[in-house]
Each structure stands twice: as C-alpha cells, then as structure tokens.
Amino acid sequence: MSWAGNYKIFIGKKLKLKIKMLNKKRGFTLIELLVVIAIIGILASVVLASLNTARSKGGDAAVKANLSGIRPQAELVYSDLGSYGIGYSATAGTTLACPTGAGNSLPATTTIVSQIASAVKASGAPATDAMCSTDTTSSGQAQAWLVAVKLKTDAAKVWCVDSTGASKVETYTSVNATSVIACP
Description:
The chain has 184 residues and is α+β, with helices and mostly antiparallel strands. The chain has a domain at 53-175. Helix content is 49%, strand content 14%. It is built from five helices and four strands; from the N terminus they run ααααββββα. The chain has helices at residues 3-23, 30-68, 70-81, 110-123, 172-175, and strands at 131-136, 142-150, 157-162, 167-171. The protein has a four-stranded antiparallel β-sheet with strand order 1-2-3-4. β3 (157-162) and β4 form a beta hairpin. It is rod-shaped. The mean pLDDT is 79.
C-alpha cells in the first residue's frame, strides 16, 4: 500500500474514534450534583448569617453616630442660653421617654429630636425606649442632661451620652431611673 492509502486508513480510524467519543453520554451523576448543591447551600447559609451580624452591628454604629451628634448641639444651646434650656423630665414613675416634638427643653430642640429619632430607627426599638433626662435647677433651667437609646445587637444594653462627656454602653435598667442625669 502506498503512503496515501495508509493516510486514508489513519484518518478513517481517527474519525471513527471521534464518532465513538461523541456517542458516549456526558454529564454529572446524581450524587455529584447533590454534593455540589449541598456545598452551595452550606456556603449560602454562612454568608447570610454573617450579613445579619453585620447588619446589627451597622445599626449599633448608626445609634452611636446619631447620639454623638447631640453633644455639640447641646453645647451650642448652652453657649447661647447659659443652660441646657428648660429642664425636662418624664412623667413620674415612668421611663424617661424622650419628647417627640420641638420645645424649650434640650431634648426637645429640633435637631436633637431628629437625632434621637434617627438613633431609635437604627436600633429597631420602639420610640418609647429612648431615654432623656435633665438636671433642673430651682429656676427651672437644665444644667446637665442624658440621652440613651437601646442597641440593636442587645436589647438589654443602651448607648448612653451625657453632658459630662461620657459616651458608653450601659444596661437599660441602670439608665432607666428618674434620678439618673449622667451615664452611670
């Protein structure tokens, strides 16, 4: 046989081999697919758990940021009036609920009401869980103040900011007393 004849036989065998390979079924077995789906499910649950934690920590950061803006505003009020405005206290025997509208007391200034409302929204707590208090002199003027809002990651804890310069985490019960005017 000549060279050309050998070449034709070689091409024919190669073609038959390719046709056989194409006829074989390709794909994954059921077990392989189930293993991949299980791994994807496990990874998705880990990612979702991490996102929820990050979301809660983000809420806490927003509470802290909103309440930290109260101190400079309070100092502006103090420099203008020589006090923190008219003293404010919640109804006796109740929690130290913050005012929700503008008024003459420090916690009722428009900017501070807005900052407290933003902090409460970020915490996910009801508005009644925000606490405000002022120390009132005999003339009715406030000389000290406190604002606290629950944290999103732990409802038993609050972020407390006061006129002494304190900004810290406290327990809800330690701040929720009518005589408290500074973060404990």
